[in-house]
Amino acid sequence: MKIKESVIDFVQLAQEEQHLQFQKIWALEQLIFPTSTIEQLYSCLYDSTAVSIPIVQYFHRGKLVGQNIISILKLELNGQAIFIISSRAGFLTEYRGRSRSLNSAIRVALNYRMRNPFTPLWFVTTLMQPKIYTLFTSRSVNFFPRAGRKMPKAHADILNLMQSRHSGAEVRGENIIVHPCNMPKVTPEQLVRLRNRANSHNQFFLQHVPDYFDGKGLMCVCRLDFSTICETIFNLAADRKVK
Fold first, then answer.
1. What is the superkingdom listed in this entry's lineage (predicted)?
2. Whether pTM exceeds 0.70
């Protein structure tokens, strides 16, 4: 299946074009996340701390089948400026099953890392499916929280900073933060595949977020330095998985 991509930066669009793109994004959002609200999408796209919001749109035979909203926020921690990248990705049910959104996020992160080499860059995302969590944790040992490795203090500080931006956040253990998310529309067959318990990453996620079926997600963090980005790119290219 040949999927084509296009990228726009929502922040750089004129006001009228922003309005047109918002309507297109919202129409697909409703198909992917039936419980999503227009207010949630609005707060994401019009975040005053966002310096850039690249939106990757995926097309199959001219039809928009998925999108990845990648927000780049400029915040401050302990008196130091930092960039936080987050990803809000989704595909129509029949186009899921690959790591397209992760590849898109890595390309955006690498580009921003090269343009801003001296400002700390972090990736913070909330994952609400064990299969997706496994995809991320199996590609980099620096993606937290994870089984068998204590989270560094710098990573924990970023999680605590971002926790306040999510309503209903709940601490379930040391550096284990869960909050309500929009559940994507899934088929019964996909639900079965999501519960594959064959590896430690799945087991770790299910241990801490057994209620993900009810729309709960696990907040995760990774520092995007050059070594971590290169490690992830290599592991994806070679289909190499880490514990």
1. Bacteria
2. yes
